[in-house]
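Case study 2.
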Amino acid sequence: MTGQATTAGDGPARQLWPLARRAGQAALVPALAIFTALILGAILIWLTTGSLATALAAYGGLWEGALGSPRALAGTLVRSTPYIFTGLAVALAFKCGLFNIGAEGQLALGAVCAAWVGYRFQMPGLLHVPLTILAGIAGGFLWGMVPGILKARTGAHEVITTIMMNYLALQIVQILLSGPLKDPRSVASQTPALAPTSWLPMLIPSLQLHSGVLLAVLVAIAVWWFLGRTIWGFELRTVGVNPAAARYAGMSVARNVVGAMALSGALAGLAGVVEVAGVALDVTTVTPTGNRYFGLGFSSGYGFDSIAVALLGRGNPFGVIGAALLFGGLRAGATRMQFNTQVPGEIISVIQALILLLIAADVIVRRLYRLRAATADEAQPALTSGWGEKVA
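Prediction:
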């Protein structure tokens, strides 16, 4: 009886162990890629400064600026939030076999739509905040839908169309901020200040930590549920794995391609919303709450960095959160690192590029650390599909 009870009790553990083992194996290469990139970054600082102590001090400053205090931690969370949204945008497109490089433009269009609603209307916050968020989602959704339609109807490669639409979006935004949306009281190309009723609520006002952080986590959970627990998510993933099989099973490949790109754009548009309606600008002792507005150059390349975030997160929504926190921490700590050691903050971009290189070419990491070849479960998600083939 005791032996039977023990065997029955071990059942759930035996079922969970293979899952935990596969998760650990999938996380091993990204972890080693990050470690290797940090080592190479330290070597680069050492070679350029001629001092190993400077390299160690630079990383000490990086840690201090990212996690060394409650304010630093809040800054990391705020910097990570748009990375979560844009990383989810690229990861969702990956699941459908699409490579969305247009998150930067979709973010910009979402931001300008949210800013317009934020300053144009006056209404209670219970209505104004949701309307501002929906405007940003709509801007990104519509801008992401266009390359999806082109892909479905003409076979135009989404990599080319999304790159070109990035430039188009940025030019449209520049025209709007220099003309109809420009604040007449400012010499800079920016919108009027958003009404306080459209601002995202603050979690900790003294640390400028806004509720967009919680929204990002909730959206990541929603994306995970959508991909893994809904019929549409199953169809989307099936199209990404084998479009021919999906078509044979009666699934609309065109509808899923258009839908995936539109949803991807909506997620990127959310990143624009949190940057416009959440991040406080012009904070002083006179105006401790700061202002909210949209101006040229407000994005720090979140849309382009999102590719690395999605790859590092292995296309998994929770992996994207971890990768976004890493990238947000690197960006948040760069200023303190440069202040303490005069090491240029651009070294962070080098480290991020090294992480992307080592993740994309994971055979380098596997050979360096003598790991076995990747299995089917550990393979990178499909990044793109062919050119010129209509999927309608």
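Residues 2-49 form the longest helix (48 residues).
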